[in-house]
Every structure is written in C-alpha cells, then in structure tokens.
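Researcher: Here's my situation. A collaborator sent me these components and asked whether they could plausibly form a single complex. I don't have experimental data yet, so a predicted model of the whole assembly would be a useful starting point for our discussion.
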Amino acid sequence: MNYFFFLSGPNLDCELQIPRFRNSGKLIPEITLFEVRIGKGYWRIEEAICKCDKNFYYLESNKENKDYVYFLALPSDVNSKQVKNLYNYNSYTQTVPDYRANLCLTNRNGGFTSYQSEYPFKMTLQRGSLISSVSTLLNKNVSSNSIFIKNIFHEPINEEYQAYLVSKKEGKVLKEYRIFSNSTNKIDLLPEDICVENYIVAKGFLGIPVYLSKNESGYMSMEHTHPPHSNIKGKNQFQLVSKLRNELLEIVN
Amino acid sequence: MNYLKLLIRPIFNSKLFVSVRNIIGYKPVGFLFPNSVKNFSCSDLFFWRTDNGFKTIFRFSNIPEIFFGINKSKVLIIFYDSLGIELKRTKIKVKASVSEIEIDSAYLGGITDIGTFSIFHLIDRDDTQEIKIINRCYVAYQRDQSIPTFVHGNIEAQYINLASQEKEKVENDIAKVVYFKNEYLIQKNLSLFDYSELLFSNPHKARIWISIDGKREILESLSSKLIKIKDNDVVSVRSNLSMPRPVIFSYKGKFFDCHHG
C-alpha cells in the first residue's frame, strides 16, 4: 500500500489530489481517506476531513498538517485510532502502474509545479543510506534551488540525522544539514553547490529526494530522481550501487 | 518453495511466457529487458518539443564512468520525428558525470514540432564484465520566461547490444503490447487547468492504438501524438500498449507544469 504526504516551505503552498479510484478503473465507493499524525509514542489515526468529489480527495497543507501522512482504507480496516507502528492496511493502492497522488506546489505569483507522488509502505520499514546527485534536476541560473527529503518511518519518532553535501571528486564534505525522520526536510542549495560531482548523502536515513527550482517571477520546476539502482541491470546491480554508496559514505565518515 | 520459485521465475519471465501472460491478461508485463544479452545499453523513449515556442533540455549521467569505472565513452542520440521516422543521429564524447544538450528548432534543422529520441552509451567491447545500462535521464521543457521544467524518463524502449558485431544496431522490443481490455485512468483532475496536453509515444516495435475517452488514434513505432484535453476531470486511456502513460503538460495563465502521468 502507499502513503501520501505534503511537501512544505516558506512562500509555498502544497495541494494534494488523492484519487479515490484505482488507475485500472475500479472504484470501491466506501474507500475512505485517513490522516495519521505522531502522538506521544503512538500514531494517531483519524478520518481526514477535507474536500472531496466522486473521484478525488483534495487536501491543502497548513502549519498543523504539513507532516501528516494519509492513506486510503475501508473503515473496517482501521480497528484502532492509536497504533504503535504504521501498518500495511490493505492492497487497494497496490497497483501496476503505481497508485499515485498529484502533489502540487503553488506560489503567490500563480506559479505551480507538480509530480505524481507516493510513499510505498515497504519503504517505511527500511533504514538505509540515501545518495543523490544534485546536478541532474536543478538549475544554476535561477534564484532558488532546494532539495526536499521526505521520510516516513513506521515508528512514531522524530529522530535527528545528518545529511551532507559531498564532493566525490575532492573526496570531502562541503556542507552538513540536520534532518529528521517523519518530516519533510528542505535543504537550500547555492549555485556553487550544484556541481556535477556533488551528491547529497544521508547515512542511516532513507527518503524520497525531490528537487525544486524557482525564479522570482514564480516559475517553478519540481521532480524526483530515479533511485541509483534503476540505471543498471544484471547480477551485480546492487553490488555496483553499494560500491558507489560506500565510496560516498566513506567520505562522510 | 523458494527453490521452486527460483526455478520457475526465469521461465515465467521468458519472452514466450510474457507473450502468453499478455494475451490472457495474467500478470501482464509492460517492459521486458534483454536479460540474455550480456552487455547492453538501453534507452527510454524521451520527448522533444520545439512547437509553441518550446525548447527541450536533455541531461544524462555518465553511467559507464559512475558505475563501471569506464572513463572513455560516447553516447549515440537518435532523434525521430512525430511519425517515428529517424531525423538525426549524433555522437558525443562524454566528458562529465552529468552532461546537457539543448534541443531547439535550429538544432533539428528548423523543425517546429514534437518527436522522440533515445540515448545509448557506446563503450569499447569489454568481455570481462557484465555491463547493462538503462539510462533513464531527465528532460526539461522551457518557453518564454519559464525556467526549464524537468521530468524523468519513464518508458523504456530500445537497446543496443554492445557486444554485437552489428555495431549500433538498435533493437526495439522492450515495450510490450497486450491483447485484452487495458484501461489506465490518469490520477489527476485535469479540469482544474485552462487546458492540458497529453503526449503519447509508441515505444513498441509495431503500430499501436490508443483511445482517449473513446477517440481512437493510431501510433506508428517511435512516433508521438499530442492530445489536447479541456474540462475532463478523469481521463481514461485505453490502448493495446501495456503501459499507456503520457507525459502531461497542464497550463494555467502564463504558467505551465509538466510531469509523468
């Protein structure tokens, strides 16, 4: 199953359109949107109160709900309003192609940018290390470049981790950032940070890296990167990715 | 049980069984990689557009260097027009970890239209290691005062067997078709925009059909089609292509957005 989430940042609003239908055309009318937030040592689950029509749920981010996550389930799937861990409640959002929500960032100039987003349940169970090249999706010639790193972890905790801007060529850490589990982390980059040999590295922390560029007229571009293993195939696919990951982790160690 | 699965999986995922699965509709497959080929370079089918004031910016990573430590390599980029006919081939020496090319009307000999393109890494034949590259890349579209708006590759289409005697022969049988009712609903409310454009390409080796809300279109291999949508909240795509997902451009006022559907 998939969870859905917001991204957030100063002078940015986030809207989420979560389809009620499966992309193969099937729809269970009773399917309901639930919101999940961290309580004191547990996850608190409630039915989401938001605008909806027969095809979509429409959510807007605010200060309170920016780190909430959302999922679709039948009311009978959700037996308790307080749970210790996030669960794989059902297979409704287990589809091929992936079941996705439209996550759209807007600004006061009327600019907007979106991508089809989801956070797979199995990723909430994993700890690993994130590596992502910073030069593939950003634009040096615009006024602002950022990377969102969205993490959803199955335990209801906001743990602190470190992320690093690493120069692979020079073999050194250029910058350090504090990031948190079960949060949307936003890292702002300067034009000189956007170099073809530079990577964002986060040890022990997995998340979806989403890249945002914008200029002063309100134009924006947002997209997520492919995971490194999707660029190669074969028996050594994961070994080759590990080699690159270890090379970068060695620099941050 | 696991041993049984290991034994059966290669048969289940073989070309013949995939054809059977796609005929009967049991766990159909969208893309089948040439796993028996030891060294290949595979490409998504990307869109270029130079219509309506657009230019296209293409960024690709040096995968031979990043993952295999191969310092000297080239890329072959092949451009197709909207009918799927080859327009241009270009070879570029790869010098950086990430490279960029700008595709505007002048780059394509004055053509103002849409079309597709593929990229293949060319390396010296190396029998010592298995090299299987799938370059997914990133493409941005820009017009007027906008900044380049990026989307990632999303539809694998072609490959070159790097060990083949027939150098640079492009194979075209990764994307698969199905023989049963296949419907895909776009997971976004398109009625909230002034209008939207759905860009479809045909990554399959033969002609395919797509039907948008009942209107049927034929696409030749490697060709592309732009379909304008207005006022539809949910768009239904039917096709014999297994994964008929378009790139979506949505427009509101002077702004536009693009992403994979």
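Model: Some features of this prediction you could bring to your collaborator: Helices of chain A lie at 121-124, 237-252. The CA atoms of residues 19 and 56 of chain A lie 4 Å apart.
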